[in-house]
Amino acid sequence: MGVAMKQCSFSEEYPFTGKSWDRGNGIRLNYVDEGEGEPIVCVHGNPTWSFHFRNMIRGLSTMNRVIAIDHVGCGLSDKPQPENYDYRLKSRIEDLEGLLDHLGINSGATLIAHDWGGAIGFGVAGRNPDRFSHLVAVNTAAFPLQPGMSFPPILGPARGFLGEWLIRKANAFLLGTLLIGVKTRKFSRAEKAGYKAPYPTSSDRLAIHRFVEDIPVSAADPSWETLLQVERNLKQLEHLPLLLLWGEKDPVFNNDFRDHWLKLWPSAQVHSWPEAGHLLLDEFPNTILPIVRKFRTEHRVRGGLV
Q1: How many Å apart are CA 257 and CA 254, to the nearest integer?
Q2: Phi, psi (5° rounding) for residue 270?
Q3: What is the distance between the alpha carbons of residues 248 and 164, in angstroms, rounded to a whole number?
Q4: Which of 122, 106, 145 shows the shortest CA–CA distance to 238?
Q5: Across residues 260-286, what is the average pLDDT?
Q6: Cis bond before residue 47 (omega within 30° of 0)
Q7: Does the model's pTM come out above 0.85?
């Protein structure tokens, strides 16, 4: 109820009516489903929700069916206690896969993934390569840290006991993301309200904390093997066109991640913005929309993709 009551403050930014899907165990997952045509699937990261794709939904749904998920514990989806949901990467992949099965999206889809959405979205795509025809990665990864990469220092304080206090009690992770996530502009009051609305209390921020705790860094981490399998399955997707959209001032997914994508996909199309940060879609939506449209059209014509 709290989220619904506050939504009026950002309704102009996010004028969409969510839909609901039961992912099991009585847990309701919220998603946006707008427009008609070839499907575009938007998968958010942490600490955002489908609100992050609001400009993509508005711009792309004029000619396509656009689906944007709210992960369990995020956005307008249910926020279960840990005894009812494990908040692990494996479950996130199963959630998205189950939703797409439920919606009958089995082929011809475009994936747009940001942040954690990379491991989740590419994880789903790698399990069923025929489901997608185009891939878009926005400041994200679908592989572990590579040799020469280091764990982002900015995330260090967010792990462990101190991290739980910072994220759940002080709301530092969300507020910090809004503070440094964009570099070329400032968020409006409505945009800030939209990002913050689903997370007013410590209990509501459980998923934000669990996402940080679940980052696989070594074999000792519970989601390490899941991420390795996501990486292995990327070979099943090499025939698909990949578009990389990158804000180069991202303190988490820096240019090393972009460059590794290019090692995996030498043919990938790349658009980088040296002045932009982590929340790239909030910085240049009017520039990015035609890039995405052109990418899909060019490869449909030249590659014979659907």
Answers
A1: 6
A2: -125, 135
A3: 28
A4: 122
A5: 98
A6: yes
A7: yes
